[in-house]
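[Meeting: bench + compute handoff]

Bench side (C.D.) handed over the final construct sequence. Compute side (W.E.) agreed to return the predicted structure before the next meeting so the bench team could plan truncations. Sequence as handed over:
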Amino acid sequence: MVNSLLGLAAPVYRYAAFTDDPAAGNPAGVVLDARGMADDEMLAVAAELGYSESAFVTSSTGNDHDVRYFSPLAEVPFCGHATIATAVALAERGSGGRLAFHTRSGQVDVATADDAGHATATLTSVNPHVEELDAAGLDEALASLGWTAGDLDPALPPRVAYAGAFHPVLAASTRQRLGELEYDFERLKGLMIERDWTTLQLVWREDEHLFHSRNPFPVGGVVEDPATGAAAAAFGAYLRALELVKPPVTVTIHQGEDLGRPGLLTVHIPADRASIDVTGGAVQI
């Protein structure tokens, strides 16, 4: 917990999601009682913390919670890692189990569990969908990244995937290409604002069920998101829609390695329903 410089009555917690190591994964701010907070107050807390996103529980009735998410620059409709962090924070304070988070993107069901003494949470996405990435958008994204069409893996074609937020999926042909991420921050930010994209889901496939990912997030005011649950859910929908996996199946995503904050995201892709499940741990910083 941190004492906010803004003088909030409610405590502000800091959690690292998709890890059991406070120095790894993706950090998020969590305010479990944000009743009465104005939008500018929540934005100011998110900016003060400086994490890619922070979550604010604005209302609670039993296991139903209204949750909003803010980056340091703006509100975002949904955030996976802050959802995992919030669910674990609730569970550690006796309010875990089966939860319903009401977000701007719709209801996200969350279930908490104990895994050998470490708290974990599984979020169930809103119904996802996958759409084409038009040639102009792809060309501008590649130019902003400093990539060429030859840097892409033709077995995983570019698309835009949605599971609460929009994420273009671009697959690198090599791990080296993914690791050498340097991009034009302002140029990519402008494109993403124009297209209503939240992060880019850049991936490299190590094998059929194992992927590595990086997520540029200039629209949130940070260069890169260390572990991105919303993008992982969207990617699960992408894999199913393009028949790149055979559901039901579980895939694993390693993210944050290149930032020195490794995280592990487990994506469950069912065959009998549209929504995608993403599981991860979280630990208080």
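W.E. noted at the follow-up: DSSP finds six helices and 17 strands in the chain. C.D. will use this when planning the next construct.
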